[in-house]
């Protein structure tokens, strides 16, 4: 990817009508990130359930917010913001349930722009939470650079297999 290409990536809010696009990029980025690290059958089961267009449309209709990162209208990344179901959640918290970007677009500032859009969509909340696979060192380094710190751990189910996650938080009212 050229530097100029990263500059052409746009970030836009996504709604229920974008469920197919969200499903496509969800599957692509999840497989790209975890193939070879998570058992193949578990990956496929997770994608089939948690990335299905019908499921994503329902989540958005129930109040979740999503953003698409696109290059020439092709999805290259996305983020999903929902009410938190994490044990560490407190009143005033919201959860960044998903944020993924195709590897070709990583390290170019696109993820930071996507995270900025999420923050703008999280007005009225005090803290942004997220869970990340405990051995995903690249993602943890990105979140740490963005001001997140670990507040908890949890077990995360991917297609019937449990994995260790760390739970990170960042104050949304930082100045």
Please provide a written account of the structure.
This protein has 175 residues and is of the alpha+beta class. It has a single domain (3-171), classed as Gcn5-related N-acetyltransferase (GNAT) (Aminopeptidase, 3-Layer(aba) Sandwich), CATH 3.40.630. 35% of the residues lie in helices and 33% in strands. The chain is built from six helices and seven strands; from the N terminus they run αβαααβββαβαββ. Strands 1-2-3-4-5-7-6 form a seven-stranded mixed β-sheet, sandwiched between helices. Helix 2 (19-34) packs across helix 4. The longest helix is centred in the N-terminal third of the chain and has 16 residues, at 19-34. The protein is globular and about 35 Å long. The model has no long low-confidence stretch (mean pLDDT 94).
Indicate the percent of residues in helices.
25-40%
Low-confidence stretches: none
Round the Cα radius of gyration to an integer and report it: 15 Å
The CATH architecture is 3-Layer(aba) Sandwich
Q: Classify the secondary structure makeup into a structural class.
A: alpha+beta
- Would you list the SSEs in sequence order as H and E? HEHHHEEEHEHEE
Q: Classify the oligomer.
A: single chain
Instruction: Provide mean pLDDT, rounded.
Output: 94
- Strand content range: 25-35%
CATH superfamily: Gcn5-related N-acetyltransferase (GNAT)
Q: Give the tally of β-strands.
A: 7
Shape: globular
CATH top level?
A: Alpha Beta
Q: If helices are DSSP runs of H or I spanning 4 or more residues, what is the number of helices?
A: 6
